[in-house]
Design goal:
Number of strands: 15
Shape: globular
Helix content: under 10%
Oligomer: single chain
Order of helices and strands: EEEEHEEEEEEEEEEHE
Strand order of the largest sheet: 1-2-11-7-13-5
Distance between the termini: 27 Å
Radius of gyration: 16 Å
Largest sheet: 6 strands, antiparallel
Structural class: mainly beta
């Protein structure tokens, strides 16, 4: 497994090693020991999967307070633009984002730590997306930031007329209007 840094130190890309031959390939998608060594010690407790069609934008989501989640995300088939936004007030990278293409072909995974909003845009006809979470889903702690907040300057790589959103994702506030953000000086892993 290779670790690649991004413009925001805590958000990292993981590239598994592929072992291939005329039959196909094998890859190790997760090793607790390796992840703890490369990234940080985390205990993932829930795996999720979604299937989406071209143009779907999901996000930007997070869970608040004691329900905050880290995510390790990857694409099984298809292609997405995956985005992590720093929503930790007081952070030197507050309001900045990392955008990475994840696909069934490049096998990359993105680690999104607690204190970040997460979303993705489907760039292929159909995508199967999987992610691990280090905290259970808590509907009472759901939060979000507007996917189209102009201050974030995210290029979702989709034409506006092709974007498909849920009603919930349409209703989230802009970052500067949100009252439910994280504090950079609090350790949400403690």
């Amino acid at each position: 497994m290779k670790l690649l840094k991004t413009a925001i130190e805590e958000v990292v890309i993981l590239e598994p090693e592929l072992f291939g031959d005329n039959r196909g390939y094998f890859k190790e998608t997760y090793s607790q020991q390796l992840f703890d060594t490369l990234v940080r010690p985390i205990r993932f407790v829930q795996d999720n999967e979604s299937k989406s069609r071209y143009g779907v934008v999901r996000g930007l989501h997070f869970q608040k307070g004691k329900y905050a989640q880290s995510k390790l995300v990857r694409v099984i088939s298809g292609r997405v633009l995956d985005v992590a936004v720093d929503i930790r007030q007081g952070s030197p990278t507050f309001g900045r984002h990392v955008a990475v293409e994840l696909s069934g072909e490049n096998h990359r995974m993105l680690f999104i730590p607690r204190g970040f909003a997460h979303g993705f845009a489907v760039l292929s006809e159909e995508t199967v997306f999987q992610y691990k979470c280090d905290n259970y889903y808590a509907p009472q702690a759901e939060g979000g930031i507007a996917w189209d907040d102009p201050t974030l300057r995210i290029d979702w790589q989709l034409a506006m007329q092709d974007i498909i959103l849920s009603e919930k994702d349409r209703s989230y506030p802009f970052l500067n209007d949100s009252t439910e953000l994280f504090d950079y000086h609090i350790d949400y892993y403690a």
